[in-house]
Amino acid sequence: MNNQDLNNAFPIVAAALGNKFGVKVSVGGDDAYTTGDRIHLPALDTEDNNIKDIAWGYLAHEAAHVRFTDFGEFRNAATNPLRKNIVNILEDIRIEKSMQDPYPGTKRTTEKVVEYLVKTGGFGFVTKDQDPHPAKVLSQFMLFRLRHDILGQKALASFADSAESLLEETFPTGAVTRLFGLLSDVPHLNETRDCVRLADQILRMIQEEQEKAEEEARHQQSQQSPSSAGGQSDPSDDATDDQSDDLSSDTDDSQQNQQSQPDNANGQSDTSDPADDNSDQQSGQGATSSHSGADDPSQDAEQLAQILSSLLSASQDDLPDDLFEAVQELLGNQPRNSYDSDIHLPLAMESARNPSIGNAILNRALSESGKIRASLQGLIQSSRYERPINKRSGNRIDGRKLVRLSQGDSRVFERRTHKQAPNTALHLLVDASGSMNRCISLNSSITLADLAMDSAVALALALEGISGVNPAITRFPHEDTDNVTPLLKHGQKVRPNAAVFSAITNGGTPLHTAIWYAAASVMATKEDRKVIMVLTDGEPDDFDATKSVIRRCQATGIELVGVGICIDIRHLFDHSICINNVSDLRSELFRISKDLLLAA
Predict the structure, then answer these.
(1) With 72 labelled, which of 183, 199, 306, 574 sits at a CA distance of 20 to 30 A?
(2) DSSP code of 285?
(3) Per residue in 96-155, pLDDT tens?
(4) Which residues have a Cβ under 8 Å from the Cβ of 452 and sit 6 or more positions away?
(5) Is the CB of residue 283 less than 8 Å from the CB of residue 133?
(6) Exposed, middle or buried by CB within 10 Å (0-12, 13-18, 19+), for 167?
(7) Nearest to 360 by CA among 453, 294, 254, 244
(8) Is 467's pLDDT higher than 90?
């Protein structure tokens, strides 16, 4: 890691942003992805601020999806590639605009992503001389014009103007005019379903323009060959009717609560959309090459119909890549030395609630917590006792010392020294690995996990009653993963959260990930002193990664204290104690508490 402390370290900033946005964030490896309710970022360790800006923009964008997107509606809209693409562009605009209201800074964050892609040619802008597919022409116009006009991303100004010119050269004037009219509704989209409805209106408009072009083509043919118009049916009539019926079905479906459909668009049973009956037509690649402009009076109606048909039948290969899928790929394709294998910020998972178990733990902890608090409170009061001293100058005269003046001693002015009160955020990490399920002795049914949890709750109860101390409790691992389970967050009270306390054991001992989480938590607190206390029975899964994050914490000023549960853990922590029962906690803590709670 280039920076050996945690100040402004990538995972710490990522955790802070995730907390700010109200989304779950994890960091590790070299991939970026989102699961719909959580976001994962690669463990970037680079001095390239541009790449960090890309990561923060990706995080802000995906956080907006987590907060504002109805993923059921979004998945159900993916009935064909063009529909999915249009909905995605509209939804991206809507959620980013929605994110800017509570978090105005995200506007600049996402702008930096766009500016970087413009600068590095990451957008892959298509021009007329490349014979672009009509679907690419429409998609890039919507992307650039809406991002520029609605999100205010000024770096896209020239792209938006060029994309608009290409759109006008490619499609009929009527279609372009109607498209602008429909897109005027984009600033007023309030939910995902609104985006789906507007996408279907756009597709319906394209369908209607195709029908007009086909009708005009038939009219031109009848004028050129009057004898051939005598009652023969045109097979394109049936295709048009089928497309109209299919699109009507698609639009109606988007306006109702739909049955659950597979996430994979290829596996859905509903194939009724504007593109289906055109799927056997040519792809339309190069269809714009001989199109000299929508206002050209010599423009061939049959060619326009073909362009619109190609648009409606576009495949995924005919459409440009999603903007933030490209960003995701960029984040995962950095040089190998841009990632730090020691970084692993886990997800914070919700805890199951069991009031009966939690209250039993709370009741056992209450008796010990009072004793612990009394001991610590006495220590703190003693340390803060201000014994006055007498000086030769000052603002307050000590009347009891005036007799000194007759002896030539002018030390009659009283001064009081100020001593520091506690100002400490203390994060308790409770090991709940499978090995903690062992009993503390042959004659006891109490497990190591019971002892660790009872001790943590007793200590948190004691500390929350001391002014200037801000405790938290986190259990690890969450099930058989590297994630953690916060039981008490900084600023919360113990009793209202009793239902989440339990001594569930499972999995290994991913201590390094737990310390990363605790470090991110204490660094987000306002207290000057930051302490992580680990209650564990021994060896972590990854000793080197654990020592690495401990060194980084120490370099940042975060203090670590180990509490060995029936075992000595001095090999891990410079400051440690060992307890064999909850009552040991009081005497052992008293020994170290002056350094633990009071600033030097």
Answers:
(1) 183
(2) T
(3) 999 999 999 999 999 999 999 999 998 888 999 999 999 999 999 999 999 999 999 999
(4) 430, 431, 432, 436, 503, 535, 536, 537, 563, 565
(5) yes
(6) buried
(7) 453
(8) no
